[in-house]
Amino acid sequence: MDEKKILARITVNPKIFSGKPIIRGRRLAVEHVLGMLAAGDTVETLLVGYPWLEPEDVQACLLY
After folding, report:
1. Sign (positive/negative) of CA torsion 21, 54, 47, 63?
2. How far apart are CA 51 and CA 63, in angstroms?
3. N or C: which end of the chain has fewer CB within 10 A?
4. Which residue range forms the structural domain that includes residue 7?
């Protein structure tokens, strides 16, 4: 998947989290995902904790 398609998974909606970048219109902010990864969580842990999350969503956060 190319970078443009991956980044399309990140959306901004002024009505959700005051316009912070989020994953695919969900209420999960990019900064939250990055914070969990920085704290030592693995991608696998995130995928278990957020069953709708896909590996490409995490990749999009890292690219963003």
Report:
1. negative
2. 21
3. N
4. 3-63
DSSP state of 12: E
Cβ distance 6 to 63 under 8 Å? yes
How many domains is the chain partitioned into structurally?
Answer: 1
pLDDT for the residue 25 = 85
Contacts of 19 (CB under 8 A, 6+ apart): 12, 13
* CATH at 22: 1.10.10.10
d(CA 38, CA 24): 21
